[in-house]
Write a structure and sequence with these properties.
The chain has 254 residues and is of the alpha+beta class. The chain contains 5 helices and 13 strands. It has helices at residues 21-39, 193-205, 209-216, 222-234, 237-253; strands at residues 44-46, 56-61, 67-71, 77-81, 97-101, 107-111, 117-120, 126-130, 139-143, 151-155, 160-163, 170-174, 184-188. Helix 1 (21-39) packs antiparallel against helix 2 (193-205), helix 2 packs antiparallel against helix 4 (222-234) and helix 4 (222-234) packs antiparallel against helix 5. The longest helix has 19 residues, at 21-39. The protein starts with 20 loop residues before the first helix and ends with a helix.
Length: 254
């Protein structure tokens, strides 16, 4: 192939590599995979604040051996031992409750594996036999003022869900906050707002210099790479990309 003439002292510029459709597809695939990682993070973590609590949860009781609130297919609520004491995660679907937010309030409902809600009647009996939420299936989740990361579940009668003194049963008629009704809540990481936001931010930052240079169509310096990565997080990536492309065209014809 005949090369174009070049004169001594003339700056030789390398031809820019065009971004192929295949490269664009690969970049999009990586972005989708990063987002999928965030959505599929099913690790169990501790809820730190009331606002964290959503999705599937395990209500960990203040018992000597790690245990939680569970229910069977008939709606009987019982104390269930947690086998994984290191990760403190469920090994049985009966130990898992799905949080339902009550519109217009800070209250929640807790749906069991069988599709019925945790309930507390006027005598303090706790069960899970109702398919719809009413006041008896609605609880206020209150952050315990003395124990960070711990909560108290209060019924609409202003009584608390509590472990009995012998550690064998659950009741809902405790009149005040105590050790027996102070629980911890474990939840899946993908539903925790702070972790979700942090992972999404990292996913957005996860792009190579090569991919950025191919998107712009020229070599980038460190500041430009940092600016584009920051723009992906802040949401103005495409604007910054167009500015750099425009700048590249002006530099070419200057």
């Amino acid at each position: 192939m005949v090369k174009p003439l070049a004169f001594k002292g003339e700056k030789i510029t390398k031809k820019r590599k065009a971004v192929s459709a295949e490269d664009n597809l690969q970049a999009q695939k990586k972005t989708r995979e990063s987002r999928a990682d965030v959505q599929e993070d099913d690790r169990w973590v501790t809820a730190d604040a009331v606002g964290d609590i959503s999705g599937p949860v395990v209500i960990v009781l203040p018992s000597t051996l790690p245990s939680c609130i569970a229910c069977d297919a008939g709606g009987k609520v019982f104390v269930s031992k947690l086998e994984n004491v290191v990760e403190v995660e469920p090994h049985d679907m009966r130990q898992v409750w799905i949080v339902s937010k009550v519109a217009g309030t800070d209250n929640i409902g807790l749906k069991g594996h069988h599709g019925r809600y945790l309930s507390c009647d006027k005598t303090g009996i706790v069960s899970a036999q109702t398919e719809a939420m009413s006041s008896e299936e609605t609880f206020a989740c209150i952050a315990n003022p003395d124990t960070p990361g711990a909560f108290n579940l209060q019924s609409q009668r202003e009584e608390f869900i509590s472990l009995t003194d012998d550690g064998n049963n659950i009741r809902g008629d405790a009149k005040s906050v105590s050790f027996n009704n102070t629980v911890r809540i474990r939840m899946q990481a993908r539903f925790k707002p702070q972790l979700k936001a942090s992972k999404e931010m990292k996913a957005k930052e996860k792009i190579s210099r090569k991919e950025l240079e191919e998107a712009v169509g020229k070599k980038l310096d460190d500041n430009e790479v940092r600016a584009l990565k920051r723009a992906r997080v802040q949401g103005d990536y495409h604007e910054k990309l167009l500015l750099l492309r425009s700048k590249g065209k002006h530099d070419k014809y200057a």
